[in-house]
Structure formats: structure tokens, C-alpha cells
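Data availability excerpt. The first of two example chains:
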Amino acid sequence: MSTRAALAGLATLLCLTGATHAYDEDEDTGPWQEKAITLPSMPASGALQSFYVSAATSNTFFVDTASLTVDEDGVVRYILVVETAGGARNTTYEGMRCESREKRIYATGRHNGEWAKSRNDSWEKIRDIPPNRQHAALFLDHFCPGGIIARNREIVLDSLRRGPRNLDRIIY
């Protein structure tokens, strides 16, 4: 039998069986499933690590290092603190999916130190638009360089401390 005939036969067999390639990763794992979360404690000032967002903003951005996790469901979870030039402070507990370039807010911090669960539990695409590019900065520079989730929490913490210039250490 010629090589051409063998390939044609194999293509026909794959079409008849519904297979699109020899190995389907989703076949073993099923659809993505988000793990259940527990809201963390509100951040302590000593655990806040600042990170650079853009020259187009006068806000200061922080990740609470005590809350940072790189979880087995492929989500980086963290508390984000934003301080405005006027002194206002916004605190949110969020998740970021590297695989789909999405983020989600689980809860917003209240002035009394309690969490208010988000009414919107959907995942939203991360957009890189100045001056509100804090999620893009976290995605591109620290959590998901090249669209790949950082290996572990320690690597993300190291990236936040050193800045985005050490991207090779995040992935490998």
C-alpha cells in the first residue's frame, strides 16, 4: 500500500471515529472547574508589595503577599490594594486565569474591615489600557508571562519584589 493511500485511510478512520488528533488533553480532565474559595483576612500593611503599573496613573498598587496563592485550578488569587493620590484606598480579593486571560473579583473590602461579596461572579477579559492597566501589569509581568501561569507562589513573590525584568525566573 502506498504512503498516500495509508494516510487517506487513516484520515478516514479519524473522521469516522470523531477523533481530531491522537491525544486529547481535555479527555482526561474534563471541563475546567474552579475550586471553592475562602475569603482571606484583610491585608496587614507589612504584607503589601507595590508593583509598577504605568506612568499614566498617579495611583499606587499593591498585592497582599499573605493572600497570594497559585492554585491547582490554574487561578492566581490575591488581594489587590489601590491607593489614590488623594489618599482613598480600595481593596479587592481577586482571581486571575492565565489560560484564558481573565480576571474576577470575589469580594470588595469595606471600611469596617469586612468583605462584601461581589454581585458579579463572572470572569472578564483583561485589557491593557492605560491608566487602568493594573490587571494587565499583573498578568503580563508577574502572574502569567507569555500567557503561562507562574510555577508557584515563591516565584510570583520574587517577581513582585524584583520587578518584571526577571521573567525567565518566573516560568523556569
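And the second chain:
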Amino acid sequence: MNVIVIGSGINGLVSAAELALKGHAVTVLERLDRPGGAVRTEALTLPGFRHDVAAMNLSMFAGSGFHKTHAATLATHGLEFVPVNRPFASVFPGGDYFGVSMDLQETLATIPDPDDQAAWKAGLEAFPGKAGALVSLLSARMTKGA
């Protein structure tokens, strides 16, 4: 079977790889001049600084069944994950920002409202108990509808 995959974002590339591994002829079409969709690195700000575009997608890929199955092969082709201490930030007009750090106190220092700080801490405490449902949902196999 010949398959055309529209888009070379992480989902398109994983789909194409899975289909190719099952023996299908696959063509991937991308409108941009580079693959990767939201999972790519670009120089977006100052010279010498490179940024992941939508890095949360990369985190989900790193924890995916596809990566678990194919990690060794991907590594031989150059895939590596670089851990960071400050993975996310949002900058607002006027220079304010919210920055997520691996250090809780550093993160809380970017949240001016004490109630919002408490909500952030409560969300962190609740996350481990709820993460299983999220992982199950994101890693569930798609099936044909009835």
C-alpha cells in the first residue's frame, strides 16, 4: 500500500515510520522548508541562543511508546535529549514573565499573587495521582470506530 502523510511534525513522522516499518511505501509532504513541526529548534531571540519551539510536544514524545520501542535506533541517528533547568516561560507585555523552573522556589518567585502560588503548589502535589490517566490517554492506541 502507498501512503501519503501530510505534515512532518512529530505525529506525521512517527506515523510514517510506523507505516514504513510495516512495509508500506510512505511519502511525507511538508509545506515548510524543514521537518519537525512544533518539535524543532530555532534561533528566535538573541544571537547564540537556540530555543525549542513548543517543547512540551518533545516531552510527550520522549515518554511515548514509539520512543521506548525505537530509542536505540533513534540514538544511532543522532537523537538526544538535553535536560534543562528552566524548561518553560511565558513573557508578557511590559516585561513581566512566568517561568517554570525545576526549582519550585524559583518558579514561585515568578508568580506575584499568593493565591496563584498556592494553586501552582496544589497542582504540583496533585499531578502524580492524575498523571497515569493522562499518560494512558495520550498513549492509547487508536482503533476503528463502530
